[in-house]
Amino acid sequence: MSRLAALPDNDPARRGFLHRLLHDRAGNTLALVAAATVPILGMVGGGIDMGRSYLSQSRLQQACDSGVLAARKKLGSAVVVTGEVPDTVEAAGNKFFNINFRDGSYGTESRDFVMTLEDDNSISGVATVDVPTTIMKVFGFDEVPVQVHCEATLNFSNTDVMMVLDTTGSMRQTNSGDSQPRIEVLKDVVRSFHAQLEGSKGPATRIRYGFVPYSTNVHVGNLLEDDWVVDRWTYQSRQAAGTSSTPGIAESYENFVHTGGPDAIYATESTYAPTWRSGTSETDGGGYECNAPLPASTLVDDTTLLSSATEPFVGPPAGTKTTEHYRRVRNGTYYWVEFTGTRCQVRSARFDGYVEEYDKITMPRWEDTQSYLYLPINRDVTNWRNESSGCIEERATYEISDYSNVDFDRALDLDIDRVPVAGQPDTQWRPMYPAIIFERSMRADGGGSFVLLPVASSETFLAPYWVGLAACPTSA
């Protein structure tokens, strides 16, 4: 036993040791460090793990933003009109998200990205990921869940939109593979474009629209004074040059008699609303049409010649008249359409062994042919306001080769400030009469070629107005 341990509590020597131990600080540092290790570890570990979490959150937000932006751009504005979302939209959004935040980036786990099309056609997204902890596992925190939200909206500032629309005659034609003329397709595109912009703009956005119809002609007749238009003008036209007659053959079918089998059964198969066809020219204002396809006909005719007889035909012209007597047996059904004024009716006639006999009569006849002289014709146009459509031909001009030195005394069509002078045709405008213009010696089928000299012919040469190449647009 040591001497210290044997000393009683009240011994002065023992009290001195305890007193010194109580006031001795030589071992405090080790105790404090040991006690502070746990909170220090928590703070350092939390800082490291939260730093990784914030970095993952920042990059995940960037990936989410890029994903919805790519998806919204791919969606476009057509969804406002069609309501259809292409399959490529989601693929585009996921592609950009995956590029910006790859699976396993920064040691993350359980990556997920979901996009949603909102009612206002914006695309929202939610991206989530788990960030595994390192030091904080000691305190029971195995992972930090991270979630970000993002949204992309198609929007634009105040905008002025000017549409230059082709309204030339060729727009009445129908492209191969289309079911309606070009001008109708153009109208649909303009309406769809307008609906897309209006449906995509923000509440405070203002859009103004302007339209410039483009045509080869201008309709300014209502803006011109009488003295600004010529009294007479020359047009590439034609005039009648008499008729000629040549022998021909006339055929007719007569004397139909039902000789056997049940009567045909007539029925209304279906009805539908007619469609409106827009006008194509000044004289064609359009109208309703029944243009739905008809069922395929199954009608089969079995025709037999029973007899044939000839007799002299006095004429004129003299010749031979032939009468052929036939029997026809009909089986099957054929269809046609009737327009009642408000509805289109698909009608049918059904035959089941229907037998009839009739005569086919052939005899000579004169075929009259009108001849024309195609040439420039000078015409009195003082009544142009009532006779013409209001479109005009330009004033006098010349073939310009140097546009930096235009002679406006000759190119009057370019001098918009020049006021026409009565009695000076070069300064005046000329009314357009498209219905009397002919491409001399050129046929509608593309044959022939234009010539300058007059041509006498029984053919009807190409008239640009008839094929829609001389349309007159809406008046200015």
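^ that was protein a. below is b, sequence first then the tokens
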Amino acid sequence: FFSQDREAYLEYDLTSIIYRLSTPVKPVLGIITSLPLDVGAGGVMAAMQGQSRPYVIYQELEQSYKTKMLDPNFASIPSDVEVLMIAQPGALNDKQLYAIDQFVLRGGRALVFVDPYSEIAGANGGQSGSPVVSDLPRLFQAWGVHFTSDKVIADRALAARVQLSEDPRNPVAEYPIWLHLTPDNFDTSDPVTANLQALNIASAGALSPIKGATTHFAPLVRSSNEASLIDATQARLNLQPQTLMDEIHPTGQEYVIAARISGSAKTAFPEGPPQGTALPQQIKASKGAINLVVVSDSDLFDDRFWVRLQNVLGRTVATPIADNGAFVLNAVENLMGSNDLISLRTRVTNDRPFTRVSKIQAEAQAQFQSEADALKQKMADTEDRLRALQQGSTGKQQAAGLTPEQSAEIDRFRRELLDTRTQLRDVQHNLRKDIDRLGAILAFVNIALVPLLVAAFAILLAVLRRRRRARALSF
């Protein structure tokens, strides 16, 4: 079954089917996660009732690999696991950390997703028990990686545009902790990110190499140089885009969001295995170069950030609007030792934003948003004073009627409220004035100017042909 909405992905869909048929024994992908990847946002109960479904990225992983979800109380990594994916892990004990440590040192590859503020976990925390913050400090120290588990990246240049309310008349705003990443932010020399066109992530942390580490730290995804780190708690509690924008103080540094870690590494347990560990003799140093990909965000798994879902003939069809799924699949496939489908997976993803419109919106937002917020606050204060005055005029005064002073005060507040609303409408109009002007110009060019030019060219061509024909007849 092929959906017309995925026409652009036909080559990839056909090739992936052939690839799966030619590989009857699927490689095993072990998964350690607290996220409900395999049941969906609604949790287990909703999935059993048919009201929830696995996340699209997990469904795509299942098509290409034998996924093995490790029990939350696992004590070892199964021997048939070739690549281990750790996504927003819960609190892991020493035995579990030791099992991961030994898996990596004996040549196992790992794809790790941690997050200083996992919005997908926060949304499902009541059902799945997923922690909002995740970190693996002991393992990261051994691997030569530092992760800012208490800070998130806020980026002015890459801020996603969001609608502040359901009212379409309200302007959109730049939300600096939701990032829209483009090829300028990817390492084009690494097969995992070379062909990516766009990534949408939310409230990501920053990765950096530890000084003196024996491993090699290669950035795969970076922020722009107009970013800074803000407190993760503040990002969780303060959802106002303009307030978050004001907290950004760029230093010119580009923060690393995803990195490949390779080279020699030593165990995170130099003092020996945890007591009661039943694993074989401890590996204290890697036999060869380790191969890891670490990502400081887990929200890229969330369907709402990267895929559009449609029901076609009773079947859910997913059409990507960003390359979040391709990034995860590329990383797993590369760590498995194969790059067969990477070049096809993102070939047709289009990310062609209206850069001029985005620039106008950003300038208008910076110019008028503070004024609009002040007017809204003034309107709310006026409404509160008017409501208090009207409520205070009830009871005993209701029978006697309002005094002239009270009536005049109420009328003044009402006029002030109307004036404030008019000013707010003017400000909201100014937010879109330049965009509407640009739209009018483009509409004129497409609807009127181009047909007029075609008509003028046709008339000119007809005149030239008539003169040529008349000249030929005169001879």
